[in-house]
Design a protein that fits this description.
Layout: H1 4-9, E1 16-18, E2 31-36, E3 42-49, E4 54-57, E5 70-86, H2 89-92, H3 116-129, E6 142-143, H4 145-152, E7 160-163, E8 168-172, E9 186-187, E10 193-196, H5 209-215, H6 217-220, E11 223-230, E12 233-242, E13 248-254, E14 261-271, E15 285-286, H7 306-310, H8 313-329, E16 333-336, E17 346-349, E18 354-361, H9 368-386, E19 392-399, H10 407-414, E20 417-420, H11 425-428
Parallel strand pairs: 8-11, 18-19, 19-20
Antiparallel strand pairs: 1-5, 2-3, 3-5, 4-5, 6-12, 7-8, 9-10, 10-14, 11-12, 12-14, 13-14, 15-16, 16-17, 17-18
């Protein structure tokens, strides 16, 4: 009655299936396998339900032989499709299907019960017939999203796609969509990449299978793979992991467009290893003005940037915003870091071949040496990572005032870093 092959070939994502039996027993996170009937049929995919069935009108379209009218549909996501069905002949001689075999009742309405042994038989068939799930993308590689899911499974829709069969959680991000009151994906001052959980309305929480998969990815053996949009494709940024000492925080924000207050989950992600990006990956995104009215963040346990524990966050952001404004007034293109970039404070370009990357530090009498050491180390790292992606890189350490110890001028000069402070904008913006 339904041409599933053409439906999938045309790039559509299956989101529900009609059910007749066991409707009161079906619930979110129940697993299923999909079987195609007919002479060329067999085991073709597997997935999970995302909620109980509801009665609704069928969507009339060209994939139906005839409009089936009102039916019960169970919402679902497909975690994996096989390239070709595993034929019935592979199971008919298996002793696990002798007697109470689901093949005897395929004429009846969906779904069909499986014993534990029969489920295991289907799982073994997936292991034998699916392609290799070894991760084959390198940071900077681009791929069609449909092709990505053909290789590794998961839902083709949404920002988060859990792929248990290939051992991955695919995260799709852009820094521009705002989840409310400036809450968006991007780098934070503590050096973690903040990734917003699933859902644009209502409170987010771990009843979401995808959010739970991110939180529990280490325990479940899942790798977090981050992607950025790249035209009609997606670009692989690299593998990330939740920061173990502080894996997530919550933020209360209004819904996009000024709706009611809701709670969103901000996952704290850190890169796994150093993922150098190829020259084809552009550096930075349009500068985002930092909120310099924010309250300083409380110190948290774990390997956070020591800047957070000692500096005045508002002063830091004012320094950053003022320098960005000065650069823009001089005709520079001012940038904030994207997911594929090291987490510099800001950068600017005068032309296509020259990039200035800048780290901003507030200074006090008690933290001056520590802040300068930290800034020099960060800039050497940023400079090294960005040299493969732009012809000329300059590194600027922009501090709150002239250091009390003049040694730092010589140290920065020998390291190839320009050390400057308010009043010396012309030195670094030339």
């Amino acid at each position: 009655m339904f041409d599933l092959d053409s439906f999938r070939r045309d790039g559509h994502e299956l989101q529900s299936w009609s059910v007749v039996r066991y409707r009161r027993e079906l619930a979110a996170n129940d697993r299923f396998v999909m079987w195609i009937t007919g002479p060329k049929g067999g085991l073709i995919g597997r997935g999970r339900f995302t909620g109980p069935p509801t009665q609704q009108a069928s969507s009339p379209d060209r994939y139906w032989q005839e409009d089936p009218g009102q039916r019960w549909y169970a919402p679902l996501v497909m975690d994996e499709w096989l390239d070709e069905p595993v034929p019935r002949s592979e199971f008919t001689e298996d002793p696990r299907f002798v007697g109470a075999s689901p093949f005897r009742t395929l004429f009846a309405g969906n779904p069909h019960r499986l014993s534990v042994d029969q489920w295991d038989a289907f799982s073994e068939a997936f292991d034998r017939h699916r392609g290799s799930h070894e991760w084959g993308l390198r940071p900077g590689d681009t791929i069609r999203r449909t092709e990505l899911h053909d290789l590794y499974g998961g839902s083709r829709a949404g920002d988060i796609s859990t792929c248990p069969e290939s051992g991955n959680v695919l995260l799709f991000t852009s820094p521009h969509p705002d989840h409310g009151q400036g809450c968006r994906n991007g780098w934070a001052e503590d050096g973690t990449f903040r990734y917003i959980g699933e859902g644009w309305t209502g409170d987010q929480g771990f009843s979401s299978t995808n959010d739970a998969a991110i939180r529990d990815h280490v325990r479940e053996g899942l790798a977090l793979r981050l992607f950025d949009p790249d035209g009609d494709d997606v670009r692989y940024v690299g593998e990330f992991a939740v920061e173990p000492s502080a894996p997530y925080t919550y933020a209360d924000v209004s819904e996009p467009g000024g709706g009611p207050i809701r709670r969103v989950t901000q996952f704290h992600l850190v890169p796994v290893g150093t993922a150098s990006q190829p020259a084809t990956v552009p550096v930075g995104l349009e500068y985002r003005v930092a909120d310099d009215t924010v309250e300083p963040a409380a110190a948290t346990p774990g390997p956070v940037n020591s800047d957070l524990a000692t500096r005045n966050l508002r002063a830091h952001r004012r320094l950053q915003n003022d320098l960005a404004a000065a650069a823009r007034e001089r005709g520079m293109t001012v940038l904030s870091p994207g997911a594929a970039d090291p987490d510099f404070d800001l950068a600017w370009r005068k032309g296509d071949d020259d990039l200035v990357v800048c780290e901003v530090k507030s200074l006090t009498r008690t933290n001056e040496a520590r802040q300068l050491r930290l800034g020099v180390g960060q800039l050497l790292d940023y400079d090294d990572l960005l040299r493969t992606r732009t012809a000329n890189v300059r590194a600027v350490l922009w501090v709150e005032h002239e250091p009390t110890d003049p040694r730092w001028l010589g140290i920065c000069h020998r390291a190839g870093i320009e050390l400057a402070w308010p009043g010396r904008e012309a030195d670094v913006l030339s």
